[in-house]
Amino acid sequence: MANETDSSTTLKLILAWGFVGIPLALGVYNTLLNAMKLFQ
Amino acid sequence: MGLASFLDREHTVAKPGYSRWLVPPAALCVHLCIGQAYALSVFNLPMTKLIGITQSAPGDWKLTELGWIFSLAMLFLGGSAAVFGRWVEEGGPRRAMFTAALCWAGGFLISALGVYMHTLWLIYIGYGVIGGCGLGIGYISPVSTLIKWFPDRPGMATGMAIMGFGGGAFIASPLSVWLMGKFNTATHVGVMEAFVIMGLIYFCFMIVGSIIVRVPAPGWKPEGYTPPATSSKLISKNDVYVYDAVKTPQFWLIWLVLCLNVTAGIGVLGQASAMSQEMFPGHITPIAAAGFVGLMSLFNMGGRFFWASTSDFIGRKNTYFVFMVLGFVLYCTVPYAGATGSVALFVCCFLIIISMYGGGFSTVPAYLKDMFGVRYVGAIHGILLTAWSAAGIFGPVIVNYLREYNITHGVPKAQAYNNTMYIMAGLLVIGFICNFFVKAVAERYHMKANDPRLASTAKA
Predict the structure, then answer these.
(1) Predicted ipTM?
(2) Are B347 and A38 within 8 A, CB to CB?
(3) Most CB contacts within 10 A, which of A5, B32, B82, B305?
(4) Could you list the residue range(s) of the whole structural domain that residue B384 is in?
């Protein structure tokens, strides 16, 4: 029972962080690509 | 369960087994959305061609008219955070996030109608007033909840959320350009559709945040956490009522510290592109300058997390001392970098300065919590955000007018910013003095156990 709760919490954490983390990471990557123009 | 009761604070109390690490993504759901405000300028040029399509035609809006949309939004951000702060604290984070979602998405939809009808005042009301209220309520909504969940790392927790506000533009900017491109035709600029779709996306995103968020059960503590036995005088264990907090000198000293730190940062943030090109003509091209601005945005965002997390170890007052002293040195170094033609030194100075600008925003909620306790920190933070609105006026004015003054008095463009840098450094000296005078709040302001005002927030 405790294991089920643990894995459900882990899944929720992955989903929640992925939900905000993926778009943010894509945005940061995109900005970083543009920022590289400073060094070209 | 009806919507009203679903939004109640009582229904957001976490059950055993809830992980506190779900709260930062809930806060980020809101802050990443409202951070779009920093990317509003991508709509400016297309909105000046709604009639002419390829170029501005008679009857099209002017950039100066469109500039008021952002100014209004910032004004209402500060105003609504100050006015609704107590309501946010007492109603709980879910109700606040839901309201922020309605205002923010509603603002986009009303603005889309304004674009469709080509009626600018509808955009002023939609994005500026209603969206601005969404900004203010959304900005403060997760602050006290995060502090309650992370008593061991309040700076890091609020830093994560406020980092999202800095990062929101990274998502919004390419998304806006992509959406406008999708709906752009030879006879139509796709701003209206972009507004509608973005409003709907943001609404869904923020609602997810309001569903995930929970407040800790009364008396909850992180596992294995014991509050430090010997606490610093500058970390209060007592709460101060929101309207008593504004009567203390500490509140106004921190207000000034934030205002001066933000004034110094905001003044150069908006001018970074022009400044870098004018200080290093021939070395920094417009494309490289755009890259520099992008890099500054990344440091603005990263600084929010880094400095707020650092403040958990070195203390809030010391963190602001670092901002003021290091900022002073860096601002004084910029003219030297210009004189010696050192682009690398110039870039390094500005990246650190801008990281501390972001850090100033993200460290202040924990500073307020240390001074005034946890209970009303969100509401007090809301009132403090008026410092941001004030700095939003002072910063650009100082930079723009000084530059103009210097150029009209024959100073070469490359050196026109030197005086501005020294004035910014001077502002940080005043900030240092204000920070120095921040002491523990007098006992007479502390709420007593039998304070009748506690009844309204007994569950908070």
Answers:
(1) 0.91
(2) yes
(3) B32
(4) 242-445
